[in-house]
Specification:
The protein has 733 residues and is mainly α. The chain contains 33 helices and 10 strands. β2 and β3 form a beta hairpin.
């Protein structure tokens, strides 16, 4: 009897274990079979990307196609396009899973330290299967700490050992240009800048169009002595014309040397290339690592050129982008963060006070950063409109955040807040008729901003140049000589700044120095030659020196004219949500369902893994609970899987779901909507928001279903508000 009972217990335990295993396997559906490291990153096969430059890196392989994709990945890494580089290296592994260098390439491309370590471990396991040269590359990477695999500013001991390992490759294989290129990158910011420059020039001497060598030279001379890299700036965007970052980086140098026309051409070209890439490849802006920084920089350059409408339009595009639930509403390099900085900068500089006071402009949140920015902008705007009482109230709100703000260290926010506090105090003191106190406070603020500009100037986080504010305050106090010093202080930090040049025209005119006023006016006309009509500082300056002609005495090289340079072929000027691919599925009754049937309504499109996927059903039930909320926002829910029509009909009866279960035969729709892993032939979870015009506004794809339904509802509401605003704008025009 005991034996029989024991046997029954064993059978019961085995049954429970088996059920648990089945449940575990079902939960893992949608996850990579190769482990957690492959759950992130691109999941679709690569394509041949035109305009990335050439950087051949021979590896041990039996398949010429593997070499082709490896070279593409290597060229992309040279331009820091890590996401697409990873896609190329993943396909190498699809073709040759045991290829050590493909694993090494993956370790270089992925930007998550844990994933990078996992990839490198696989390369190390196989390093005895490759050539001596390749093995040296793998062993060199073993000496990095992978806190950031390509951190060009890291100074720790391990990276010193990494540099020494690259030097050994160069000494043993002197014709290996890739080793020299990566050595040049690794030695940036580690001593005299001439050292990496000489290494990179040696690469360029043998391969004049090497993308990495030109790219790294630009980084080497960026911020200081940028004139040294103007030759590489002129070539890099041509060499890698299909890469946004390759168009973008020359703009950094052009901006720092005061070549604002060329800077605008570079940054505008970069945003167009990125928009075209996102549109054609169904990539959202918060999944394109450089887009927000690039668009913010372009908006900044537009302010420097006096182009208010373009600067504001660029900021609006960033603020209109869908939110990322992982936190893109606080990060300065997120779309919202970059958009908020760009919008504050443009509205303050161009004196758009009502827009600055409109909370709908920014959609402020409840974080310390948002509250501080809101109080800062309100104080300035109310003062400009003559409402000191409201300005004092906003200033008090800003002041009350001091303890909180000092704890926020990311992106120099604490330093920005300290400068804001002084700026606002100085403005209020001047408004209260206390010029000595106000000027002293602004002088202190300008000194702190000078330090911040030396630390971060790409573009500046701070929305204005306080030295210009100080110069204008001196003009108000009839102290033109001190005003000249203040404006020249700005020009010492920001070459060719139009606002400072306009101030100099006024200051020199007040001093009676006509020749100097004319010179400043000529320089201003060169920078602001295409500025918006009605720009107040330009209007005042013209009235003082009406007959001046544009002169360029500040640029270190000849410039093209931004407005006369055609960039349309590179991509669209304005970011818009892209059109959804074709949806052609079948409902539980065998009828065809397409997106065209839902024109005029939003669609929440969910790709799930069938009724046997427990966490998929959990997701659908969570959405079902909010059926009325979605309906109230004019939103239909469509749930698509590869299940057959008959299976869906049975599931519909049992599941009690208030929306149709749709059949996607052979994953045709999943592939079109990027909800299929080409590397492992694996269907994925996708949650996609499509607006009333049939455009994808937001999506999330991966190994797990997206279950933050409240976020989805908020984003649909934002989507509706954006559509209403666009309609109103179109009607007004």
């Amino acid at each position: 009897m005991v034996t029989m009972r024991l046997a029954l217990l064993v059978l019961l335990a085995a049954s429970v274990f088996a059920q648990d295993r089945v449940k575990e396997e079902l939960i893992k559906r949608g996850h990579s079979h190769q482990g957690e490291a492959f759950d992130s990153g691109p999941r679709q096969k690569p394509w041949v990307i035109e305009g990335i430059g050439s950087a051949h890196f021979p590896i041990t392989t039996k398949n010429p196609e593997v070499q082709k994709w490896f070279d593409q990945g290597n060229a992309l890494i040279h331009s820091f396009w890590f996401y697409e580089a990873e896609r190329a290296f993943r396909w190498c592994l699809k073709l040759e899973p045991d290829n050590a260098m493909a694993w090494w390439g993956m370790s270089r491309a992925v930007q998550d330290p844990k994933r990078a370590k996992d990839m490198l471990k696989e390369a190390v396991k196989r390093k005895d299967k490759v050539s001596d040269r390749e093995r040296m590359y793998i062993e060199a990477s073993m000496l990095t700490d992978y806190e950031d695999p390509l951190d060009i500013r890291s100074r720790d001991q391990k990276n010193t050992q990494y540099i020494q390992a690259l030097e050994r490759i160069v000494m043993k294989y002197p014709d290996d240009l890739e080793a020299k290129s990566y050595l040049g990158l690794a030695t940036l910011f580690r001593g005299p800048r001439v050292t990496p420059d000489l290494i990179l020039k040696e690469v360029i001497a043998k391969a004049p169009m090497h993308p990495g060598a030109h790219h790294y030279r630009i980084h080497n001379w960026n911020y200081l002595d940028g004139e040294q890299a103007l030759d590489s700036c002129a070539l890099y965007g041509q060499i890698a014309s299909g890469i946004g970052h390759a168009q973008h980086m020359p703009g950094h140098v052009y901006a720092t040397v005061g070549m604002w026309q060329e800077a605008a051409i570079s940054m505008d070209a970069a945003t167009r290339v990125e928009k075209e890439y996102m549109r054609t490849r169904l990539i959202l802006p918060w999944d394109d690592w450089n887009y927000s920084h690039n668009a913010n920089y372009l908006s900044y350059i537009h302010t420097q050129l006096g182009m208010a409408e373009r600067a504001i339009s660029g900021a609006k595009q960033l603020l209109a982008v869908a939110h990322d639930p992982q936190g893109n509403v606080n990060d300065i390099y997120s779309n919202w963060g970059a958009g908020a900085i760009a919008m504050m900068r443009a509205l303050i500089r161009f004196e758009r006070w009502d827009d600055l006071l409109n909370d709908k402009t920014f959609e402020w949140k409840d974080s310390t950063q948002h509250k501080a920015f809101r109080a800062y902008t309100q104080t300035i705007a109310y003062l400009a409109k003559g409402d000191r009482e409201k300005a004092e109230k906003a200033y008090a709100d800003h002041k009350a955040l001091k303890a909180e703000a000092e704890k926020v260290k990311g992106y120099a926010f604490d330093k920005n807040y300290a400068i804001q506090a002084l700026e606002l105090k100085g403005r209020l003191e001047l408004a209260a008729g206390k010029p000595i106190e106000g000027l002293a406070t602004l002088t202190e603020a300008a000194a702190k901003e000078d330090i911040l500009l030396d630390q971060q100037n790409d573009p500046p986080f701070y929305p204005i140049y306080i030295a210009n504010l100080l110069g204008n305050a001196y003009l108000q106090q009839k102290s033109p000589a001190l005003a000249v010093q203040a404006f020249e202080r700005t020009l010492g930090k920001v070459k060719g700044d139009g606002f400072a040049l306009a101030g100099l025209v006024e200051a020199y005119s007040m001093l009676g120095e006509k020749a100097k006023a004319a010179n400043a006016m000529g320089r201003l006309l060169y920078v602001w030659g295409d500025a918006d009509a009605g720009l107040k500082p330009l209007h005042r300056a013209r009235a003082l020196v009406p007959d001046a002609k544009p002169i360029d005495t500040d640029s270190p090289a000849r410039q093209r004219n931004y407005m006369r340079t055609s960039l349309e072929k590179l991509g669209p000027n304005v970011w818009q949500d892209f059109m959804a691919p074709t949806l052609d599925v079948t409902d539980a009754k065998g009828k065809q369902v397409t997106l065209d049937q839902f024109k005029g309504k939003n669609v929440l499109l969910i790709f799930y893994l069938g009724s046997e996927c427990a966490h998929c059903i959990d997701q659908l039930k969570l959405v079902a609970k909010k059926k009325l909320d979605f309906a109230g926002l004019d939103t239909e829910v469509l749930a698509v899987s590869s299940a057959t029509v008959d299976t869906n009909a049975a599931s519909q009866k049992v599941g009690d779901l208030p929306f149709s279960l749709l059949s996607d035969k052979a994953f045709a729709n999943a592939r079109r909507f990027k909800s299929y892993d080409d590397f492992e032939d694996l269907e994925l979870h996708s949650t996609i928001l499509i607006d009333k015009q049939g455009r994808i506004h937001w999506s999330r794809t991966g190994g797990d279903p997206f279950t933050d339904v409240d976020f989805l509802l908020k984003e649909v509401a934002r989507m509706n508000r954006g559509a209403t605003a666009s309609s109103a704008s179109g009607a007004a025009q």
